[in-house]
Amino acid sequence: MTEREIPEQYLEGCAQILAEVSATGRRLTREELNSRRELGEQAADAGHGLRALVSAHLTAARAAWPTAPGTADSALAALHQVIDAFSEGYERAQRQAVRQEEAARREFIDDLLYGRSNLGRLAERAERFGLRLSHAHAVAVAEGPTAYDEGDPVPRQVERALISRFGDRSILLTTKDGRLLCIAPGHQEEVLAFFAKRAHAATEGGRVAIGRAQSGPGGVVHSYEEALNALELAERLELEDPVLRAADLLVYPVLTRDRQAMADLVVSSLGPLTTARGGAGPLLDTLTAYFDSGCVAAEAARRLSLSVRALTYRLERIHKLTGANPADPAHRYMLQTAVIGARLLDWPAKDL
């Protein structure tokens, strides 16, 4: 906005104050300073730029510059006070506007992710933040060694990288419960992939989970919950992948949908391992490493820092206790499913 577009109302009384102060040498009164602050707040609320407002004050000061000798220093001091008070009010209004925007954004994020608002009203509010909830959206969630807030360096670093790469593509980056969230249109997979890469690096090796694209106002919630569940699964199963996709982990919710059936399988298949010296833990770790390495004994032994002979002895012990041979394809699926169930249900640390 140019100087000519600044309404005269924001300069009201400025010329008179300069004239009086330059003539008397006094400082501005409290009332005069407060009036400048109020005008600064009003100008900020009206959306005028501070640079143009300061320029308008300087132009007004030149037009009303006192001609009496010896008044220049007093006039400059008065102008300094006027602009300083005006800027203070302007910045105060700006800070208040930012706080209100942050509060509105946080309230919207909470309502969006918990579904606590009327869906129609939620869709209207979403457009303010660049989201069209009638379309499909996907959510990526990143967690690192510490909790993050929106003003922290890590979220700002990731946000700058996203904006620099994609500009304004209806992307919403925020934080929730100490994690970084990226909400993007479901068809823009490259956005979430880029977010995952940047977030993994910015969080110093943190883990990222990406939910599936879901349609409608409730789609964001479903995708967000899928991403959270993927992070929880990764922790329980000790998955090493830095980026997890909910679509690749759908088998695990299926396995635990009937918790009692899974618990029965774990107890009946792996329960005898509890009678071994040292408990079931070492033998369960052996089965986990064996299956994770594609049933290659040498690789499993390397992962466990054992000799192949020691690993073979453990597998034979498991066969003897459970009656199921891990190397036999007929028994392998049952044992592997039971091992996955044990990890998901935290057995044997928890009784089933």
Describe what is shown at a glance:
The protein is of the alpha+beta class. The chain is 60% helix and 7% strand. The protein is built from 14 helices and five strands.
Structure characterization notes:
It is a single chain. It contains 14 helices and five strands. The protein has 352 residues and is of the alpha+beta class. Strand 4, helix 8 and strand 5 (243-245) form a beta-alpha-beta unit. The mean pLDDT is 84.
Q: How many β-strand runs?
A: 5
Gyration radius, in Å: 33 Å
Share in β-strands: 5-15%
Q: What's the multimeric state?
A: single chain
Largest sheet: 5 strands, mixed
Strands of the largest sheet, in order across it?
Answer: 2-3-1-4-5
The gross shape turns out to be elongated
Descriptive labels:
elongated; 352 residues; single chain; alpha+beta; five-stranded mixed β-sheet; 14 helices
SSE order and pairing:
Elements: H1 14-24, H2 30-45, H3 50-63, H4 72-114, H5 119-128, E1 137-143, H6 153-166, E2 172-176, E3 179-185, H7 189-202, E4 207-210, H8 219-237, E5 243-245, H9 251-256, H10 259-270, H11 281-292, H12 297-304, H13 308-322, H14 329-344
Parallel strand pairs: 4-5
Antiparallel strand pairs: 1-3, 1-4, 2-3
Helix pairs in contact: 1-4, 2-4, 3-4, 6-7, 10-14, 11-12, 11-14, 12-13
